[in-house]
Structure formats: C-alpha cells, structure tokens
C-alpha cells in the first residue's frame, strides 16, 4: 500500500474511534435527561428545568460532534475531549444543585461520579483543572444553599434515586473501564497516525517532488513540498483547475483526453505540463495522480505527486541537438540533413516541384590543417560555415557531413540559372581571405550539383551524384561548380573502377618497372637510369601513369607502391652488377606522400641494407613544388637523406616557383629540365632562353643538369652546345625492360659514379 493510502486508512480509523467517543457522550446525556425527566414527572417538579437541561445536552452533543468531526480534538491533544466533557457535566450538575435544591442528593452523586471519572480519564494537569472547578462550584453551593436535604417526598422518588445511585455506580465501573480502553486505543491510533504523518512529511521534505490534492471539482486544495520552488509557488495554482489555468499539456489528445480520464476516475502517470514562464524560461512538470473516494464510493477528489523535470527536458533537448547538429559549427549534421532531404523528396513526389542538392568540399583544407594545426582548421570550418549561412537564403539548408565536406539543400528551384547563381556565390564567399593565427589564408571550394528529379529520385542517389559532380569540379581545376551529367557519371565510374583495381594491383603483381637510360652528352655513354612504374590491369588494360599516379597519391596508395618500386629498383641494380655489368646510378621518383611519410628514412635505410646497394648509386627525384611547400622541413629531411649517401635531384625544374636564392639552400645534386622547355627548344626563342638559363644556373651551383624528353637530333645538339651534362628521351631510348637495358648497357659503357658528394669518401 502507498504512503498516502496508509495515511488515509489510519485517518479513517482515528475518525471512527472519535465517533465512538461522541456516541458515548450522547448516550450519557440521554441517560441524564431520561433520569431527570422521570424524577421531575414523579416529583411534579417544574418543567422549565428539564427543557433547560435538555437544551444544554443538545448543545453539548452538537459541539462535541462538530469538534470530533473536524478533527479539532486532535489539536488540543485530547482526542476524546474528556476534560471539556466532564467540565460540561459538572457545570450541569452544579446548575441543578442551585436551581433544584430538592434534588441535591442526586446532583451530588453525579458530581462525585464525574470526579471519579476524572481520576481515570484525565492526566494530572487536567484533573487539577477539574478539581478547581469542583471546589469553586461546591463553595458557591455552600454559600447559596443553607441546608442539605435528602429527598423524602415519596417512596417512588426514593426508589428512583436509589436506582440512579446503583446505575451510576455500575456505569462508573463499566463506563470508566470502556472509556479508558477507548481512549487508549484512540491515543495509540493517533500516535501511529502522527508517526506515519511524520514519515510522510520527512519523505516530502527530502524529496524534490510536490504532493498535491484536488477536491471533487478538480480544484487544487493542497500543493506542497519540502523544497520551495521560486519558479512555481503554490499560490500560483491553489484553488484553480489545471486545465483552466492556461497550462499546456504535452500528451496525446491534450486536456480533453485527460478530462475524460479523470471523469472515469482513472489514475494517470507522468502527465507532462508545460508552464510558459517569463524571460523564456520554460517549466515542465510531470504529474501523477489517483482518485480519492470515501466509504460510500463517492469521489472526494484526486491526490498525487508532481516533479519538476525542466532540467531533464533541457538535457533531452541538448542531447537531441547534439545528435542532430555538428558540435563544431552548429550546423545540421549528416543524420538531420538526411531526414530533411528525405522529407523534401517525399514532398516533391507528392506535390511536384524540383530542388537541388549541392555537395561542397574545401580544396586546400588539409594543407592549412597540417601547416597551422587543428585549432586553426576548426576556426576555418566555423568561419566558412558562417559565410555559407550568410550567403544562402533563409529557406536554404546547409549542413556539415564531416571533415571539410558540406551539403546544401535548395528547395523549390525552377531553372539551372538560379542554382548556378547560388553556387557561384558560395564559391566567391569561400575564396575571400581568412585571418588564421595572424596569417592570411585562402581556400577554394569545389561544388557538385544534383537536381531532383532529373539526377535522382531518392536521397542517397542525389547525394551520391552531387558527390560525383564535386569530384568533376576538382578535376576541372577546383574553385568551381559542376552539374551532374551522364559524362560526369561515366568519368566517375571510370575513376571508381580505376581506384578499386589500384587497391589490389600490388597484391596481384600487376605492376612492372621499366628503365629509361640517361646518356652522357659528352661521351655518349650511359650515365644512369630512371625506374618508371607501369601498370597492366586485366580489366582496364595498360593504364597510363598520368591516370593512376594522381589517384594513388590522393588515396595514399602511393606510399606502399613507391616503397615497392624503390625495393625493386635497388634489387634490379644489384642483379645487373651480379651479372657483371658496371654499376649505374638508379633514379627513383619520390611522391609528395612519400616525402611526408614519417617512415621514409627508416624505409630507405632498410631497403639499402636488405639489397646491399651502395647509397651513392641511388638518386631520389623530387618535384620543385614539393620542396618549396615547407622549405624548413624540406631542408632538414633532405640533409638527413644526404647524410645516408643518397643523391638528390629536382625533377621538372622550371615549372615551380623556386628562386636561385632558395635553391642554393637545398643539398641538391641534379637539376632535370622539364620536357615542356625541350619540346620546342630548337625553334622557340623563349624556350631556348629558359633552357640556357637553367643550364647556366645549374652549372653555377655545381649541379649535374639533365634534360628530359629529348626526341630529336636538333634538341640533342642544342643541349650539347650549351654544355648540358646529360639527356634522356626517346631519341636515345624509351623505357625498356631490365633485360633490354642490360643489353644496351653492354654496348654503351657506363660513366663512373661521382664520389665527391658521398660521405663514404671521407670514411
């Protein structure tokens, strides 16, 4: 049974005991009135006294019943009201002594009986009050009545008085015992009830819940808690019906469903009420209640508990926000965007119309994140998010999928011009400079666009096609937008197939290494060889390095592939030497990913040790742009490679942004003139001047200068006349198999490897 149920049961028990006490009082007065009435009839006494005595009895019984009914007797810590009752009886007897001296014997017997009851039923303090009352009454009687007479008017009166005496004695014996038993039970019941009330009060005080009661008209009559609430004071609700107080109920069916439930006398649990408080401070209360009925089954009202769940609601809202929004930018995340996109699809399918999905990727975000750190990257993402929000219309939705990827939903579009305008604004907003850690930075974005229903009729297809179009924008030079089309899809499928096969090419041994010789222009002998990677796939056929190398670089596959090429090239060099061929310098290209790999130096040392190749016979070719990206880091890493004895070459020189002042700081052995300058060097004055300048600069820095892409005799003759050291290209030999290179090497003796830059020379 619940605490409130136990309290109700004990309250009912105490009430029943009090009613029994009232019934005894009524029986006592009935006996008094009957006895006095009989005596007055037999003795022919005046009737006015009987009516007076009867009126006093009725008033006394009424007052006693009211006091017991309302529970006021509990407040005076006298549940049976024994003292007031005995005082009332004594006052009536003394009044009889004064008004009817002829019946003084009878009234004195009743006074003595009352005093005897007091000895049994009253405590010391109460009995002293009763005794003082008797003393005052007897004193007044002695002063006002000169003699005490025993009634002898008739035998009937004497007999009646003696019968009254006997009955009084019996009533005293049995009545006092019963009243004392009844009083003990009532006191025990009250003590139990007080203990229960105390426990209930303690629970209420310790709990953060409110206890409430409603009357039969559903008005709040009680609303209390041990913890006062400044947000919801009880006086705000007392005397009111909840459904008439402007309070919102968060339940299915609203207040009408709740009123139907209470009309059917049903209990309810966790009814959430919303109070719209001032200063946008919403208050949520969870209310549970059960009906109260009396012994006759009549509804007395409702009672229950209420709890402030505002913090829980705010926490739930925060959790929901975190689950549906990006914590860094505050934009909707992938989950919420997919929901909104699905709703847009359903709405468009039902009512018609068109909308666009834009997939946005930052082009240079990784570079800024790596160079300036993740804090700067986070700041950039927050700033770019704000720019997107300010650029878009109020009806457009922008979300962050993760990393540097964003998506935009543009509802109700009518033509591509409108979408193009929005996409161009996003591109322009992104390219404006950022100030990150006191440095001005710029990023560009690539935007892919898919339109419903032409490019897809479900959310997944639209996002996928917008993503494909975004990659097409990157391939088109970045910092632009592209619409999805059949041509874009075809390109994406080709790229997907290329990437899928590339991931398994190394395991399937689909790669081969060809070797293109380098020729010394002064002697005509072979001065070195460059290892070039080739890929032959059963499904795609021969794939050009221009196709698969950028994909390998982007996906990170270039690191294991480059490591494999380096190992194969060193092993092949040693195989030629073991076959009796003269040692040649082996050049291997080093990609951006490999150059930034933390294990590069360890991999180099391991491969050289495992193959046994002299480090002086290995030359690593790096691009001009690679060393200029982070010059300080490049100098440190290149110096470490040089300390291992490995040679270094700058490939495609002339296409980057390096200057003579910068180039002299790098420990470079070789400059390779890019083929774009050699192609028309014999006929184009600009190319001729640039090539002459590069050769002169290399000579000034004591570097070996090699020209790439030599395909004609005129080109070779020009290079020889300008003191270029070496050349490579189809005019002398294309990239060939190891066996073919071995044959070529036997007929063209190799130029001895220079040792002036090797640390082994001084060892």
Structure description:
The radius of gyration is 54 Å and the shape is rod-shaped. It is α/β, with parallel strands linked by helices and 763 residues long. The longest helix is centred in the N-terminal third of the chain and has 52 residues, at 155-206. The protein contains 26 helices and 22 strands. The chain starts with a helix and ends in a 16-residue tail after the last helix. It has an eight-stranded mixed beta barrel with strand order 14-15-17-18-19-20-21-22, surrounded by four helices. Strands 2-1-6-5-4-3 form a six-stranded antiparallel β-sheet. Strands 8-9-7-12-13 form a five-stranded mixed β-sheet, with helices on both faces.
Task: Give the helix proportion (percent range).
Answer: 40-55%
Number of helices: 26
Please report the distance between the alpha carbons of the first and last residues. 96 Å
Count the beta strands.
22
Low-confidence blocks of residues? 1-10, 756-763
Structural class: alpha/beta
Main sheet properties:
8 strands, mixed, barrel
Q: Can you give the mean pLDDT?
A: 80
Strand line-up of the largest beta sheet: 14-15-17-18-19-20-21-22
The fraction of residues in strands falls at: 15-25%
What's the Cα radius of gyration? 54 Å
CA-based shape: rod-shaped
Q: Which structural traits does this protein have?
A:
6-stranded antiparallel β-sheet; disordered N terminus; disordered C terminus; 763 residues; 18% strand
């Amino acid at each position: 049974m619940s605490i409130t149920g136990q309290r109700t049961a004990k309250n009912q028990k105490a009430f029943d005991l009090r009613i029994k006490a009232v019934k005894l009082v009524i029986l006592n007065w009935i006996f008094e009135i009957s006895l006095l009435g009989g005596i007055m009839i037999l003795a022919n006494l005046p009737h006015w006294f009987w009516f007076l005595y009867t009126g006093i009895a009725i008033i006394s019984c009424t007052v006693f019943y009211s006091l017991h009914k309302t529970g006021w007797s509990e407040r005076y810590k006298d549940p049976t009201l024994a003292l007031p009752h005995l005082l009332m009886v004594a006052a009536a007897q003394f009044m009889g002594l004064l008004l009817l001296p002829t019946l003084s014997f009878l009234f004195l017997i009743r006074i003595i009986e009352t005093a005897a009851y007091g000895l049994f039923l009253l405590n010391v303090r109460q009995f002293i009050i009763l005794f003082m009352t008797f003393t005052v009454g007897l004193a007044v009687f002695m002063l006002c009545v000169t003699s005490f007479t025993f009634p002898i008017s008739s035998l009937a009166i004497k007999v009646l008085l003696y019968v009254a005496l006997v009955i009084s004695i019996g009533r005293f014996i049995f009545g006092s015992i019963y009243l004392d038993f009844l009083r003990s039970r009532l006191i025990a019941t009250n003590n139990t009830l007080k203990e229960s009330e105390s426990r209930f009060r303690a629970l209420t005080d310790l709990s953060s819940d409110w206890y409430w009661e409603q009357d039969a008209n559903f008005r709040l009559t009680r609303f209390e808690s041990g913890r006062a609430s400044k947000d919801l004071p009880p006086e705000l609700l007392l005397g009111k019906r909840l459904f008439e107080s402007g309070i919102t109920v968060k339940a299915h069916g609203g207040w009408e469903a709740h009123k139907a439930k209470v009309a059917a006398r049903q209990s309810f649990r966790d009814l959430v009420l919303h109070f719209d408080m001032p200063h946008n401070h919403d208050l949520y209360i969870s209310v549970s209640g059960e009906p109260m009925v009396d012994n006759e089954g009549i509804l007395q009202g409702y009672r229950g508990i209420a709890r402030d769940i505002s913090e829980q609601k705010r926490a739930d809202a925060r959790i929901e926000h975190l689950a549906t929004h990006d914590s860094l930018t505050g934009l909707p995340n992938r989950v919420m965007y997919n929901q909104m996109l699905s709703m847009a699809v359903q709405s468009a399918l039902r009512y018609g119309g068109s909308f666009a999905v834009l997939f946005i990727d930052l082009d240079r975000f990784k570079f800024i994140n790596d160079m300036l750190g993740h804090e700067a990257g986070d700041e950039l993402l927050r700033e770019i998010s704000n720019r997107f929000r300010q650029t878009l219309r109020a009806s457009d939705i922008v979300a962050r999928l993760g990393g540097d990827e964003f998506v935009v939903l543009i509802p109700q579009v009518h033509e591509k011009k409108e979408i193009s305008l929005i996409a161009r604004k996003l591109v322009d907003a992104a390219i404006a400079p950022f100030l990150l850690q006191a440095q001005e930075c710029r990023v560009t974005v690539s935007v892919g666009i898919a339109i419903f229903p032409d490019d897809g009729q479900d959310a997944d297809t639209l996002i996928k096609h917008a993503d494909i179009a975004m990659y097409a924008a990157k391939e088109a030079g970045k910092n632009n937008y592209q619409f999805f089309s059949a041509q874009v899809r075809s390109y994406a499928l080709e790229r997907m197939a290329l990437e899928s096969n590339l991931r398994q090419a190394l395991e399937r041994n689909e790669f081969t290494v060809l070797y293109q010789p380098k020729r010394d222009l002064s002697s005509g002998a072979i001065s070195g060889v460059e290892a070039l990677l080739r890929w032959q796939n059963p499904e795609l056929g021969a794939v050009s390095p221009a196709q698969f190398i950028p994909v390998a670089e982007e996906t990170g596959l270039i690191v294991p592939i480059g490591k494999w090429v380096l190992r194969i090239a060193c092993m092949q060099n040693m195989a030629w030497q073991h076959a009796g061929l003269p040692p040649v310098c082996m050049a291997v290209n080093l990609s951006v990913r490999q150059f930034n790999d933390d294990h590069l130096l360890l991999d180099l040392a391991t491969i050289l040790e495992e193959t046994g190749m002299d480090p002086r016979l290995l030359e690593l070719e790096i691009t001009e742009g690679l060393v200029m990206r982070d010059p300080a880091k490049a100098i440190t890493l290149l110096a470490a490679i040089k300390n291992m004895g490995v040679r270094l070459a700058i490939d495609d020189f002339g296409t980057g942004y390096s200057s003579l002042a910068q180039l002299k700081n790098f420990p470079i052995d070789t400059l390779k003139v890019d083929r774009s300058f050699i192609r028309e060097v014999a006929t184009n004055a600009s190319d001729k001047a640039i090539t002459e300048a590069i050769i002169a600069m290399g000579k000034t820095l004591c570097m070996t200068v090699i020209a790439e892409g030599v395909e004609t005799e005129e080109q070779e003759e020009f290079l020889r006349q300008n003191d270029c050291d070496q050349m490579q290209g189809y005019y002398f030999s294309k990239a060939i198999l190891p066996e073919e290179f071995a044959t070529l090497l036997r007929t063209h003796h190799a130029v001895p490897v220079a040792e002036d830059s090797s640390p082994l020379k001084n060892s």
